[in-house]
Amino acid sequence: MWIAVVIALMAIYFIVDVLVSRSRTHKGPQPPQYPGALPLIGHGHLFASGNSVALFELCKDICSYSNSCGGVTGLKIGWTQNYLISDPDDCLTLSNASLEKNFIYEFMKPLLGNGMLIAPAFNQEVLDGFIGIFNSQAKKLVNSLSQEVGKKPFNFWPYIVTAMGGAADSVNSTEYLNAIEELADMLTQKLTKFWLHNSLIFYFSTIRKKQEKYIKIVNDVTYAVRRKFKAFIDLIMEYSGEKSVLSDQEIINETTNIILAGQDTSASTIVYALILLGSHPEIQERIFEEILEVLGDRDVEKQDLPKLVFLEAVLKETMRLELHPACWIECISRNPRPAPT
Predict the structure, then answer these.
(1) Same-domain status, 268 and 165
(2) Residues of the domain holding 81
(3) Residue 138 lies in a domain
């Protein structure tokens, strides 16, 4: 009996969720929809394979289709209408005009909370104050990688350590990194399996239980190093002129945001840059010669950065070639561009 009641309640919740979602869908001219949508589930079946390679290829194909349609295409995951923007100018316009965060951010709240209160504090002047830390962490990375010279191919992701000062090593335990990987995988599953977008269905899923387990691991480690990061956060806020007192939980959220941002953005870019340099030894040699010419055998200083012209060009080209997510808008506050004729 109770099973029937639960099923009935879930069905009612599902129907109401669909109707509310449809009521929010823009009624004016729509961008071209990506092919393959089915009734009710939209393009959800295309994402449900669970194969990371297939998902990567699908994302590339969607971006290519968006480019062929003038830089924008519609994509429906389950009952949620989305617009994928691949045109850089449109991305810039929408990032300023559409202030609502995508529903994906709600999926990350159990781990990150509201987070990134200190994001405005990160500016060039603040970052210049940490060049000493960047130098020390770079030396650690070089020393670690030197142990692999002349050996077989290896995975150098574990060697990549972002500029977190003394606290960086504390959060790079195998258990912690494994928890981060598992949480990233669960986020992908929740995003691509549209039925998990429903909070009631997700609550009773096995993924939620696993998520709670790994979030506890991350929070325990973060709690252990929070005081080191509190000094880091306080210093940033002091540099930026911000006056605020953060609670322990806010410090944990900010610390987790800093660590994850370092791993998922800076670290992945460093990894990709090293792969490209290893594939193009002549470019690597030119960078080495420029560094020797500008620095000799001393540490880099703020005034040296504008002189490393070729290195800057290589890093910019790396970020151009690296796959970055396109602008993904769930709902926009202005009329979308109509389909090209």
Answers:
(1) yes
(2) 2-96
(3) yes
Q: Are residues 246 and 135 in the same domain?
A: yes
- Do 138 and 85 lie in one domain? The reply is no
In a domain, 57, yes or no: yes
Note whether 155 and 236 are same-domain residues. yes
CB 194 within 8 A of CB 215: no
Q: What is the pLDDT along the chain (341 residues), one digit of tens a residue?
A: 666 665 666 566 556 555 555 555 556 677 888 998 888 788 888 887 767 778 878 888 888 888 888 888 888 877 778 888 877 787 777 777 765 666 677 777 777 776 665 555 566 776 777 788 788 888 888 888 888 888 888 877 777 754 444 444 555 567 777 888 788 888 888 877 877 877 778 888 888 889 989 888 888 877 776 666 665 666 655 655 555 566 667 777 777 777 776 666 777 788 889 889 989 999 999 999 999 999 988 999 989 989 999 999 999 888 877 655 444 444 443 444 444 44
